[in-house]
Backbone:
């Protein structure tokens, strides 16, 4: 089954998942030519290994507690906090608690 993305001008629910967090998987919410919006779900102890994104990326903690490792050191993301990563910034994530993050990634413009 193909993943259904929201479209521009659609409302997108970013509320905390609460009791629904554990069975929810990470998924893409919206994708256009210029940006992608994802909800990343990490259960306590889970993480994402070091990686980087080509464009600027904004991470916002919706619920839980996540440690972000970057070249600038460790930052703790908790509900209501966000951080912007510059293009190419290698980073890794580790959830200290069951957590969900909103991730907004700017895409490189496609060559015509």
Residues:
């Amino acid at each position: 089954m193909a993943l259904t993305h929201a479209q521009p001008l659609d409302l997108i629910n970013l509320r905390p998942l609460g009791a629904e967090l554990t069975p929810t998987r990470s998924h893409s919410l919206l994708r256009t030519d210029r940006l992608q919006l994802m909800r990343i779900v990490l259960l306590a102890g889970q993480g994402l290994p070091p990686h980087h994104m080509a464009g600027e990326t904004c991470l916002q903690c919706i619920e839980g507690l996540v440690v972000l490792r970057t070249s600038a050191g460790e930052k703790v993301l908790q509900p209501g906090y966000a951080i912007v990563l510059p293009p190419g910034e290698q980073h890794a994530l580790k959830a200290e608690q069951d957590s969900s993050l909103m991730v907004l990634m700017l895409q490189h413009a496609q060559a015509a």
